[in-house]
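Today's session is about reading a structure prediction critically. Students often jump straight to the picture, but the first step is always the sequence itself: look for stretches that repeat, for charged clusters, for runs of hydrophobic residues. Only then move on to the predicted structure, which in these notes is written as discrete structure tokens rather than atom positions. Here is the chain we will use throughout the hour.
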Amino acid sequence: MKDLTICIPVYKRLDYLKVLVESIPEDYPICVSDNGCYVRDDFFCRGNIRIKHLQNVVPMFSNWNETI
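Below is the predicted structure for this chain, in token form.
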């Protein structure tokens, strides 16, 4: 399962995002698509997380595509 990457599109729900990420083992890479730039770069203290900031809020499925 080392080839698995977790992709998380997000829009504002920072409290849920924090709980979700903490439930994922640290050896899996995580990609977060931050729709509207709500997630600060220092929000997580883990090195396995990549955040793509989208300045403008995009539709839900576009955010999913950005995550992938």
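Discussion point for the tutorial: The chain has two helices and three strands.
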